[in-house]
């Protein structure tokens, strides 16, 4: 090919990719990429990149190839999920990504890879044909390494190895209660995939209306924010059922990258506590239980029945009525209703059922056929259609069960597993103060709205409080019951401090993975924990939380 044509292709390729990166990492509209690309291409052609007057060819490999590749990975993650969570990346590598429904994501990953190969080839060609590029790209490589958020996050976790104190969160951990309940209520826990409370904002019209209607009958919690390591499905479920953030077992300092055999075995979670009370526990999810360790978590924390796509798909009357992730929500909720009927009929004590749906899954959702009949045709893109579908089906399930008398003496909890990832209304969502859905309905739950600065960690003790457990200091795990007047960790310290402390924490990580991750070597002389109490407010909080 003519070198002049190759030169133009190389400049245009880099320009378009640079423009696209700018639109992904900012809130600028999509057409901005063409403006950025045009400026880049104009400058490149004006300065005769790749064809200088005194051109000297040199066969070499640019220093920037690896830094560019790492940035390509980051842009892919940011484009796919909106927020790049290193904890999620490491946990999914460990817990397993088999049987996932992200076929579209795989195609996107292949496309990204091909484009990145084109970028790397373009940079290599320009560097070999233009001595100005050879000189500049070395400094560019250093800049790319220094600015990549992925490497910054890895550096923060590496620093935890030598931190003077990595037990700030662990000292605040409160074991959950163990006393017996009297007249223990049943529990129905409905996780609505990515259906955050932010959708209740008027700009999203009626997408959240069904949950607003449910909330008028019970307690609605506002201000349940998302701290680090709670922003994906397993992390959200563990935060709300164990009161701890999900710190992966193998994050740099212990080289534990073998497949997991257990998930957070070192802490007692909701399943452990309820099983000790004689509860019959069931988990039902539309997606595979093999993905991200869901089956390991629920079986390891004493659930009697754990069923996902593999177990439920054979029960379908229409085997073709599934999506790339698994069962549609209308099918899942029919099975959930049957499970509750079975548990009520057997009458072997109180029961607890946890259900995780799919309809709101980013980027476009998976609305059921019954929603198409209710709402009209789905355009395949509008996430608000899927949000409305998810909320309507959840409300319909609850009302059906109530009409059959199956929810007598039952605490019903409707909540999001985490904030949504990148969707069609991403720019509108991220411009608002975002929080998770948390609604509780029950005989002893008075209609009310409770506004607290909280996280998903606080859902755990709030659940236990609503079930009738007496909590020491109104706390369990790292959370505080939102029915109480005790301060949450966010109210005491702010979410930025919690996230900073989480980056330095090692003791809580070892607690979570006790028996799996390598244990810390105890120092020869006791270390003083007082060194970590840096302010009078922090010292006061230590006293308050311990006593």
UniProtKB/TrEMBL annotation:
Hydrolase is among the record's keywords: yes
Residue stretches making up the Sulfatase N-terminal domain: 185-468
Subcellular location: Cell membrane
CDD domains: LTA_synthase
Molecular function as annotated in GO: hydrolase activity; transferase activity
Gene Ontology cellular-component terms listed: plasma membrane
Primary residence: membrane
Compositional bias (Polar residues): 525-534
Topology in the lipid bilayer: Multi-pass membrane protein
Keywords: Cell membrane, Hydrolase, Membrane, Transferase, Transmembrane, Transmembrane helix
Pfam entry (one): Sulfatase
Name of the protein in its database record: Sulfatase-like hydrolase/transferase
Basic and acidic residues: compositionally biased ranges: 514-524, 536-547
Transmembrane portions of the chain: 5-22, 28-47, 68-94, 106-127, 139-155
Region (Disordered): 514-547
Coiled coil: none
Record InterPro entries: Alkaline_phosphatase_core_sf, OpgB/LTA_synthase_biosynth, Sulfatase_N
Gene3D superfamilies: Alkaline Phosphatase, subunit A
């Amino acid at each position: 090919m003519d070198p002049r044509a190759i030169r133009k292709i190389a400049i245009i390729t880099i320009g378009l990719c640079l423009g696209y990166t700018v639109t992904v990492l900012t809130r600028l509209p999509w057409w901005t990429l063409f403006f950025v690309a045009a400026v880049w291409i104009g400058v490149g052609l004006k300065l005769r990149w790749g064809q200088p007057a005194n051109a000297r060819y040199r066969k070499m490999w640019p220093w920037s190839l690896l830094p560019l590749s790492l940035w390509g990975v980051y842009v892919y993650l940011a484009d796919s999920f909106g927020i790049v969570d290193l904890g999620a990346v490491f946990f999914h590598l460990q817990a397993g990504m088999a049987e996932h429904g992200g076929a579209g994501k795989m195609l996107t990953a292949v496309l990204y890879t091909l484009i990145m190969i084109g970028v790397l080839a373009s940079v290599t060609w320009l560097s070999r044909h233009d001595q100005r590029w050879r000189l500049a790209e070395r400094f560019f490589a250093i800049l790319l390494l220094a600015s990549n958020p992925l490497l910054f996050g890895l550096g923060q976790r590496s620093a935890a190895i030598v931190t003077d104190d990595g037990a700030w969160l662990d000292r605040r951990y409160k074991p959950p209660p163990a006393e017996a309940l009297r007249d223990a209520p049943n529990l129905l826990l409905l996780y609505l995939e990515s259906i955050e409370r932010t959708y209740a904002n008027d700009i999203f019209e009626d997408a959240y209306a069904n949950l607003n209607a449910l909330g008028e009958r019970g307690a609605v919690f506002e201000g349940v924010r998302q701290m680090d390591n709670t922003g994906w499905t397993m992390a959200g479920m563990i935060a709300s059922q164990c009161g701890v953030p999900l710190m992966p077992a193998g994050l740099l300092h212990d080289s534990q990258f073998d497949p997991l055999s257990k998930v957070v075995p070192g802490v007692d979670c909701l399943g452990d506590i309820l099983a000790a009370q004689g509860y019959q526990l069931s988990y039902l999810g539309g997606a595979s239980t093999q993905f991200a360790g869901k089956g390991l978590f629920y079986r390891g924390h004493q659930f009697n029945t754990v069923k996902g796509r593999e177990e439920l798909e054979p029960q379908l009357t229409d085997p073709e009525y599934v999506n790339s992730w698994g069962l549609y929500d209308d099918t899942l909720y029919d099975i959930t209703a049957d499970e509750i009927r079975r548990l009520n009929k057997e009458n072997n004590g109180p029961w607890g059922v946890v259900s995780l749906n799919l309809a709101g899954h980013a980027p476009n959702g998976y609305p059921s056929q019954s929603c198409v009949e209710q709402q009209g045709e789905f355009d395949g893109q509008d996430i608000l259609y899927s949000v409305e579908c998810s909320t309507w089906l959840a409300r319909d399930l609850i009302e059906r069960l109530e009409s059959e008398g199956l929810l007598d003496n039952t605490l019903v909890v409707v909540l999001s597993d985490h904030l949504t990832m990148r969707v069609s209304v991403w720019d509108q969502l991220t411009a608002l103060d975002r929080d998770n859905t948390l609604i509780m309905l029950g005989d002893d739950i008075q209609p009310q709205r409770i506004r607290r600065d909280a996280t998903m960690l606080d859902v755990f003790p709030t659940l236990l409080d609503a079930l009738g457990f007496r909590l020491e200091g109104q706390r369990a795990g790292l959370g505080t019951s939102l029915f109480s007047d005790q301060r949450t960790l966010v109210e005491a310290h702010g979410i930025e401090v919690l996230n900073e402390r989480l980056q330095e924490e090692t003791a809580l990580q070892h607690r979570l993975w006790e028996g799996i991750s390598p244990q810390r070597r105890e120092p020869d002389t006791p270390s003083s924990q007082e060194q970590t109490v840096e302010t009078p407010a922090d010292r006061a909080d230590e006293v308050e939380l311990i006593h």
